[in-house]
Write a structure and sequence with these properties.
The chain has 162 residues and is α+β, with helices and mostly antiparallel strands. The chain contains seven helices and five strands; from the N terminus they run ααααββαββαβα. The strands form two sheets. Strands 4-3-5 form a three-stranded mixed β-sheet, with no helix packed on it. A two-stranded antiparallel ribbon has the order 1-2. Bound molecules: zinc ion (ZN) (2 copies).
Length: 162
């Protein structure tokens, strides 16, 4: 059997999740910790089903209901972010990979473009400070139409004055 290096969620993330669960009278069970680890290991955007597939592939005996119940807890704990795509599917991304970027989401083709803009981060921080607000997570998404979809939607209005 091959030994696959198991990605570890950092201790402060585990603690953050544990603290959140305890504040709701819940325990950090092995199953919940497994899901946290696998969420942490997931590179990029995923849906609950994608995580289930990954966990089964990695040899976890993960059950669908546990995953569906645990993901919202991770979102509330601030470790996971959720966003809705054009097909109204809930997609997730762990905070440690999201921290780096924000999203442009196309309403027509569901394409998700990631972008980085340090100025936005700085502005958000300034707004929080101004309001003495302690941020847990940021959600940066802009919903609209990508360049290809715009071109297909309005083939006649292509401007050349750029
Ligand atoms: Zn992303
Ligand atoms: Zn598009």
């Amino acid at each position: 059997m091959e030994t696959v290096e198991k990605p570890k969620a950092p201790p402060d993330s585990v603690k953050q999740f544990k603290d959140y669960l305890e504040s709701c009278g819940l325990r950090l069970t092995t199953k919940r910790q497994d899901i946290l680890e696998q969420v942490y290991a997931y590179n990029g955007h995923f849906q609950a089903e994608d995580l289930l597939v990954q966990m089964r592939r990695n040899g976890y005996r993960a059950s669908r209901p546990t995953i569906y119940r645990t993901l919202p807890l991770l979102v509330k704990s601030g470790l996971l972010t959720e966003f809705i795509d054009a097909q109204k599917n809930t997609r997730y991304e762990s905070i440690h990979s999201l921290r780096e970027h924000a999203h442009l989401i196309c309403l027509r083709c569901s394409q998700i473009v990631e972008f980085k803009e340090p100025k936005i981060d700085a502005l958000q921080k300034a707004v929080c400070e101004e309001h003495a607000f302690k941020p847990v997570r940021f959600r940066n998404e802009i919903i609209g139409y990508c360049a290809e979809c715009q071109a297909e939607l309005e083939p006649t209005s292509s401007t050349t004055d750029a």
